[in-house]
Amino acid sequence: xxxxxxxxxxxxxxxxxxxxxxxxxxxxxxxxxxxxxxxxxxxxxxxxxxxxxxxxxxxxxxxxxxxxxxxxxxxxxxxxxxxxxxxxxxxxxxxxxxxxxxxxxxxxxxxxxxxxxxxxxxxxxxxxxxxxxxxxxxxxxxxxxxxxxxxxxxxxxxxxxxxxxxxxxxxxxxxxxxxxxxxxxxxxxxxxxxxxxxxxxxxxxxxxxxxxxxxxx
Length: 217
Fold this sequence. Notes:
The protein is an all-alpha fold. The protein has 9 helices and no strands.
């Protein structure tokens, strides 16, 4: 080791290679997500595309980097119906809340302000559930009707679990607003990868605690 504490040249080169590899992978996933969303006519394509992106993110986090496009395409086809059954109602509810907020936020008066504030709070709660629901969907095999209640129950028991994923959503959206071109290349994949990584870490720690309690009991 150098006495100055400077990393060896090979270490910098390896970090640069890993960073470039990650950017190329994110760009590929972003392209696949856009294609998958459009393939379902946007409304029916968003859920399977997001589930497929979260699935390949989960694989990468586990060190499985080969066949990203193949796994994405297979997951998109396999989850077309199931993912829409679980995720589409949340998406549509979010769009309705957004439309409702835009209507009342543009009006004057205490009543309109109250409705706009209530709608914003409902939207925030829904967003918190959503950032847990998608990773939960790709990580656990549950009956379709159990995903949303399980996500809500998990969030109530672990409210902090949604903070970092929500913060990552805000940061990615803010950067994308400042640099709109990123939407075509990185934004969706980056957002989905961050949300997936943060949620899976929480799930794994929670599973370990449950297993420890079961073993102790």
